[in-house]
Every structure is written in C-alpha cells, then in structure tokens.
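Predict the 3D structure for this chain.
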Amino acid sequence: MNAHAIDEKGIVLNAQFIASPNFDARPSHEINLIVIHNISLPPGQYGGNGIIELFTNQLDPLAHPYYAGIHQQKVSAHFLIRRDGALLQFVSCLDRAWHAGVSHWQNRERCNDFSVGIELEGSDFEAFAEPQYHALQNLLAVLQQRYPIQAIVGHSDIAPGRKTDPGPFFDWQRIITA
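Done. Predicted structure below.
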C-alpha cells in the first residue's frame, strides 16, 4: 500500500472502501488521536471475510461458534490492514467510527469522538506481518499530514484493564522511528 492522499470526504484514495453502517457524526471536527487495534475472526484465523461481515452487520452467527456471541455488536473502525498489507476503509475519517468503546485519553472520555481507529489483522499472540507495518507507516504518514495528530496509542492505552490490543507482539519502534 502506498497511501498518497486523503480526499475532502475523509477517504484514503487508494484504500478499498467498504461502507459500514456503524458510524455517526463526530461532535466536533477534531481528529487528534490514532488508536491501533488488532482483530481476527474467527480468533487466530486470517484472510476470511469475518471482519468485513462484522463491520457491515452481516456476520452469520451460525458460521462459527464464536460468532454467536458477537454477531449483534455494532462496531467498526476507520481502517483495516490485512496480513498482506491490503488497506480497507469502512468509515470516513470525518465520521465517528465505533472502535474504542468506553475509553479515555489525557482526561478526555469517549475517544471515538476525536480518534481514527486502525485495525491490524492479527492477535495478541503472534507477530504482525512485514507488509502490515509498511502499510501502517504509510497510512500514519498520510493521517499525520492531514490531521493534527497528537498521539498514536493502542486500544490498551485508552481502555486499560478492558482491552489488551494491539498486544505484546506489536513493535511500537517500527512506527515511532518511521
């Protein structure tokens, strides 16, 4: 992925856009935080359509036992980076995706209000793929050019005790030094 620009509608021009219904308007136009997550559906399995189906409210509860407990959740993220580095976008950066849940950062609640959520296809239990870091570095550069980003954090940083992602195998140095 070689992200070059975000258009005036908040869409990364070379991302595959798949519209999620799970978003709403931000209470303000402030976007200054990036939250990095990990996700795999079914857990620990990569490459299927489970994540897309979850973010578009099309997850079949009978397709996998794990799905029965999550198929009615209304969640999304702005972006998903697949293991091969493919970039998918589900929600415009200008809108509020539903990725952070109950969260706080620097004495502010509801991080969805002012953040962009990036999901990496992965888990807490293994390293992320090289193409994912490359795609993430490119995406972060574009987001930082377009918006006044003040911090890049993990879901675990904004929901401590509740969330653990992106997990112990995420190499923060790869994005800090990029």
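The first helix runs from residue 50 to 55.
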